[in-house]
Amino acid sequence: MKFLFPLSLIPLAALAQVLPVSWPTNVAPAFTPLANLTVTFPKHTISNANSGVFLPITEVQAEPTLSLDPPLSGTFLLFMIDPDVQPAWANILHAFKTDITGDATTGVLSGGNPRTPWFGPGAPKGDPPHHYTWVVYRQPANFRVPNGFNAGNRIAFKLADFVRNAGLGAPVAGQYLTTVTP
């Protein structure tokens, strides 16, 4: 499911800092981001100028570098999810990191504690294109992984439940790419 983000909810001065136009709302509801998320792979960069871009699956396997513009300092959580797994309830958690540091000068998000290690895109052969989606949240000072979270169970991950149970606020940034396994 794709959603056209209602730009009328954003002040005109903030239009340079909006969610990608076709934000996958089956990952996280539409929100007003505090920053643009740039995802950089060795051969490709995804930003709001090309959100949802179709990239060869072989060129998005390495864990990317992420940055926020404008730069935000602090500690962040990161999720990367594939919402297009069938059946529809079976979102796959491809990455979950806590304790990521945001550099106030460069915007680069670095370090962190991989609660589920990076697992690059890899939709089943023959599936339609999948939309791999990154969502970044501020990490509360007293953050604890909610009871019942099992890092070994990546299938049927429900971000909304995790966010509610962890007491997280709205995301600060998001981004996605499209790919398919040939």
TrEMBL record:
On whether Signal is a keyword of this UniProt record, the answer is: yes
Residues of the signal peptide: 1-16
**Family annotation (CDD domains):** PEBP_euk
Q: Per UniProt, what is one GO molecular function of this protein? A: peptidase inhibitor activity
Per the record, the domain of life is Eukaryota
Annotated GO biological processes are:
regulation of proteolysis; regulation of Ras protein signal transduction
User: Keywords on this record?
Assistant: Signal
Does this entry carry the keyword Signal?
yes
Q: What is this protein called?
A: PEBP-like protein
Q: Which organism is it from?
A: Ascobolus immersus RN42
